[in-house]
Amino acid sequence: MSAAAEKLFLRIKNNPKDVRFRDLCQLAKKFGFVFKGGKGSHRVYGHTGIKEILNFQDVQGKVKPYQVKQFLCIVQRYDLKLEE
Length: 84
Prior knowledge:
Blueprint: H1 3-14, H2 21-30, E1 34-37, E2 42-47, E3 50-57, H3 65-77
Helix pairs in contact: 1-2
């Protein structure tokens, strides 16, 4: 597991209100989510074996706090781990 990815995850977990769109997209991939598509400022990610999808919206380079909380909730609910 990458130390940088773990550090980023802890930072996001501690402050879900100030998260860069790019950082959350990268972190989702590190947790095994796969880019499924999107239109405009939206990016949709899915994960094998998980019925929920993640929808992130780029708003001036940031992601909305509720979307960060949804990501954190799914990571916790399914006990997802950072991939190598």
